[in-house]
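Forwarding these from the shared drive since the link keeps breaking.
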Amino acid sequence: MDNQQIIVRVATPDDKVYSKIITDEMESSAMARGTGIAKRSPEYIEEKIDEGKAVIALTKEGKWVGFCYIETWSHGEYVANSGLIVVPEFRKSGVAKAIKNRIFHLSREKYPEAKLFGLTTGLAVMKINSDLGYEPVTYSELTQDEAFWAGCKSCVNYEILMSKDRKNCMCTAMLYDPKDHYEPEETKEFFKENAKGFERLLRLKQWKLLRPFMKKDKDKDSGSSKFKSIFFNLFHF
């Protein structure tokens, strides 16, 4: 990423003009991967912008590049940096990391006592989170706010989540607890040393979670299963 060409900042009301293109990209990205971002409406994105709880990336010419927003749960005890999206042509350029860094610090400014958490299906986002001081955790350490889990209903993997009583799913949970956390250099080094192991674990986890649904689909003799699509995207790239 050329830092002179990309501006990453807190979104302002003027940025609401991008709300539709942001949600369209979120949806198409989730469909292409066969996995997850819970669907959001342009109105929801605009609400986050009005609340000062969003970060946007733009070129100097005003072209939209990326976005992320803050959600709070359990009366502000938990904060999630959600909906991270970067347009395809700017992926793997450092934009996602810059957005995550800015939204993380914005969250710490607004909610200094809150536990920050995230759910991700990707190793790249795990690395970014580790660089900030997040640690992998079990789902039991996340907010149990029903409103948060209800937001997963629009995710393609919701059936898997519910079949596991919300204790496991395709996503990996990560947490930053301001009262009990390792320093970013420690979590960064830990991830670096164990990256290959994390990748194998992600694939094993995804395979084990998908198998029952693929078998169910085979029994139904369906040729267009969403779970076949997920499997293809996970293991063929």
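-- next protein --
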Amino acid sequence: MKFNVRRLIAVAAALVGVVTWLVINPESYETFFEVNENDGAEIVLNDNLDNGPLVSEVLEKLQVKGRAPKTGYSRDEFYSGWPTVDGCNLRQRILKREFGETAKLDGCTVLAGEYTEPYTGEYMVFENKTQVSKIQIDHVVALSDAWQKGAQYMDEETRKKIATDPLNLLAVDGAANEKKSDGDAATWLPANKKFRCQYVARQVSVKYKYDLWVTQAEKDAIERVLESCPNERTVGIQDLWYNEDDREEAK
């Protein structure tokens, strides 16, 4: 009996020690407990909207120019197929990001899930892999648009980053994406008006990040959208924006 009491006291003391250590050193959580992250099939974007600059401020930093010729454009100038990132196909990573906790996985492959599709505003439920396959991964700044607004003058590595940056990728309804084609904000906006502010915010963010320009018609269209959301903030470019002087010197 005494042995059991001593053993219980020892175990309790050990647990108290572990808890105390975790409170003092929260970063050591994973040292003690293994965390299941669905085989790594998740991308975390730097979407801290509290710290990002206003879309209107960043828009003023973009060059306004006419379209360059589309001559020479092909998707292969940017990438050939979705790359594998940390063992998982990028398409599957974006699907997992959008479906969130509802995603059902087989390794890295998303088999089912549900989410509010951004371009239509429709809540969609996917019960099997065949249904999921109908979802397309859209380049928010279309690659053809990027090509005509600066990317054709960039190196291969930069163009690949534009095509595979999660900031520039959204899982969307196939029919809506096909209607968009390679349009910019002057020629196409999501039917879901509630998403338009976020949509142009992401376009401006991508164009700023990769030094792509806008046409005057495109800038005017973005400004009209921002009239309803003047406090809309950019996404994922905080570090670049707040180190603008260093960025300019590096060009």
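The chain has twelve helices and seven strands. The chain has two domains: 1-35, 38-250.

- D.
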